[in-house]
Amino acid sequence: MNFCTASYKGHFRLNGFYEKGSDVITLTKRNWKREVVESNFLHVVEFYREGCGYCQLLTPEWEKVAKNLKMLVRIGAVDTEKERQLSSASEHGDPSNPINGVPTIKLFKPVNGGGKGSNKNKKEIIVYNGERKAKAMIAFFSEHMPSHVHRVSEKSFADFVKTDVPLAVLFTTKSSTPTLIKAISVEFLGRVKLAEVSKAARSVAAQFNITEYPTLVAIPPHGIDAEVKYFSGKNTFNAINMFLWRHETDMKKALKRRKSEL
């Protein structure tokens, strides 16, 4: 394995690049399976060596990326000297692209949406060869985020809501799914079914009294007599996560009651 030999005259952190409290996840052989393999989120991993000048130069940009994409994309780092086994391409699932130098950046993108069977945790692995600036990396990584948001039309909406799973619908004027909603769809995969409805679907918007865009609506499963709820909090991952978690919890209780009454 050939490593960067560039020297760096700046100040090196005594305890490594990414210290406790950093938004960058320190990845090891011990936590790799839990953090990356079994996750439905996109993970982007920097393979680095502490003595590498180019790696030191990348560090502040990597911190910016991790802070900007916090809760949306998992940004991690592997110290190739401390984690020699994990740094082996075959060990991290990418035998055709060995780590020939550092820093190397790889995307581990889930391809089966948390499906079942032997391919449940299958990843598409992409080597990032673009500009090593935060803005460029954020844009590239955001484009590769997995999404489990259904695009629903006026014609398909009636069929979409015929389900025993809690629902959430984003009424939007945009043609592309916001990164925040993509991440929410990953977080609630298999728990809450998410959809987008465009402004053109006027009859659906009228059904839910939608007058402002975007509006996120929590809808009960088919056959459950419960109120539709409208999200009115801050446009953050944590706020939407809490809103949908409460919706999911309430609907699970309602479904359980209905089952006991049958």
Report on this model:
This is Thioredoxin domain-containing protein. One of its GO terms (cellular component) is endoplasmic reticulum lumen. Residues 1-146 form the Thioredoxin domain. InterPro entries: Thioredoxin-like_sf, Thioredoxin_CS, Thioredoxin_domain. The protein has 262 residues and is an alpha/beta fold. It is built from eight helices and ten strands. The strands form two sheets. The protein has a five-stranded mixed sheet with strand order 1-3-2-4-5. A five-stranded mixed sheet has the order 6-8-7-9-10. Strand 7, helix 6 and strand 8 (193-198) form a beta-alpha-beta unit. The radius of gyration is 22 Å and the shape is elongated. The N and C termini lie far apart (64 Å).
Largest sheet: 5 strands, mixed
Indicate the CATH architecture of the largest domain.
3-Layer(aba) Sandwich
Number of helical elements: 8
Strand content: 15-25%
Mean pLDDT: 91
Proportion of helical residues: 25-40%
What is the topology?
Layout: E1 25-26, H1 32-37, E2 43-48, H2 53-68, E3 74-79, H3 84-87, E4 104-110, E5 123-128, H4 134-143, E6 149-152, H5 154-160, E7 167-172, H6 179-187, E8 193-198, H7 202-207, E9 215-219, E10 229-230, H8 237-261
Parallel strand pairs: 1-3, 2-3, 6-8, 7-8
Antiparallel strand pairs: 2-4, 4-5, 7-9, 9-10
Domain Thioredoxin: 1-146
Organism: Cymbomonas tetramitiformis
Protein name: Thioredoxin domain-containing protein
